[in-house]
Amino acid sequence: MPVCKACYNRCAVGKNFGAETCASCAAFFRRTVRLKIVYPCKNDFYSCRKDAVRFVSAVHACRKCRFDRCIELGMNPGLVQNPRPNQSKLSLMPKEVVHSFSTQFPLISSMTNVLRATLLDRCITSDARLTIGTSEPASNFLSYNVYRRLTLCEVKKYREMLDYSPVVCELNKDVKDAIFRNSFALALIVVQVHFNLKHRSLGFENKKKIYIFPNVYFDLDPEKLLFFFASHKNPQSLAGMNDCLAIARVFDLRLPQDWARTGED
Description:
Blueprint lengths: L12 E4 L2 E4 H13 L9 H4 L3 H4 L7 H10 L17 E2 L7 H6 L1 H13 L4 E2 L7 E2 L10 H21 L8 H29 L7 E5 L2 E4 L2 H9 L8 H12 L15
Parallel strand pairs: 5-7
Antiparallel strand pairs: 1-2, 3-4, 6-7
């Protein structure tokens, strides 16, 4: 089995950006160049040795030394292409940060680049076939299981973002996990508010709908909320209806009187 000269793992190697490396190092090089990340050196014997990726893992190995080895092998940053967004979709990428701001605040600029990469695949489209919500039919209906799957994807993306965020990326896994646990709930709220406002700015003006993800919405309608909560509850229990009543109170929605019964019928 050949050895990659950038990380010294025994794996398949090929021509990547002008040098013979493995796929992992190619991805690492591409990500570093695209996000314009400047890594600090760890100045540690074990983390900076050339086989650190193999013996102490890619997370704990010095990224600066790994990137320098890629350059020494002949990998050319000029060969890295930026991803091409689909012009048929409305992009949610943040606006470009002006050059003077980037040079004065490199930490904020690096964080902006990470956020830009994270939001790269979050696109709003007017195609009704790609819309999921509590008013949609059949396979496009937003059930509890679909909402749970979308939220778990959001959890994964947010945790991955911490691995590339400046300062945070240099912390050990336990600390990053603690930051994740203590901040994800707030981050999810901010993201959902962002998506809802973005839909409004792009012409999705139905105020009876709350957009929580791109093209994913809840109706502020008690009956439809009831169907959503009932989609994961035991049909014989009143838990789904109780959840619906609680949500209705939060949004000041008026329910028919017979919905408030406790199930004596």
